[in-house]
Amino acid sequence: MVVMKKGCSTGLTFGKINGVKLNVKLQNSQGLTAEWISVPLEGSEIDHLISGGVFSGFRMTETLSRPLVMEVFACVGDSGSFVIDTETLKVVGMVIGGLPTRNPPLTAITPFHAIFGWMNSRLRRQGIGFGDDCLKV
After folding, report:
1. Does 123 map to a domain?
2. DSSP SS3 for 24
3. pTM: predicted TM-score of the whole model, two decimal places
4. Which of 43, 73, 83, 109 has its CA 20 to 30 A from that of 21?
5. Tell me: the pLDDT tens digits for 72-103?
6. Residue 118 in domain
7. Which residues, listed in sequence order, are joined to residue 12 by a DSSP beta bridge?
8. Where are the beta strands (DSSP E) in the chain?
9. Percent of the chain topping pLDDT 90
10. CATH of residue 58
11. How many domains does the chain have?
12. Dihedral of alpha carbons 107, 80, 36, 67, sign
């Protein structure tokens, strides 16, 4: 899946999630979590995406306030950024960390269904909750 995010540190970046999950022990968590891993797109993949994908019809020089970062998908300061599927434009996850100095650089992404489930379980304790269909557009 080809994804994008806009973070405070790196701005708009593109990456790909290949379905590989990384078991992570987050601070203050009870156990391991299964996070997706994203790697940055290569230059030719970004060119193809911009010319024929979600951004076709946009003038990218006017859309971007700074140059695209192509070396990494996310860096320190980008945690909390929503990750969006470039094909459906739906939120699929949230950046939580990564290994930007690794080759290729890796970014850990919490799948949105896990975030939604966690939020819903806590809200239900307060008598509030989302229906299963609230994520459908």
Report:
1. no
2. strand
3. 0.75
4. 43
5. 888 889 999 999 998 888 999 999 888 878 88
6. no
7. 6
8. 2-7, 11-25, 32-40, 82-85, 91-99, 106-111
9. 14
10. 2.40.10.10
11. 1
12. negative
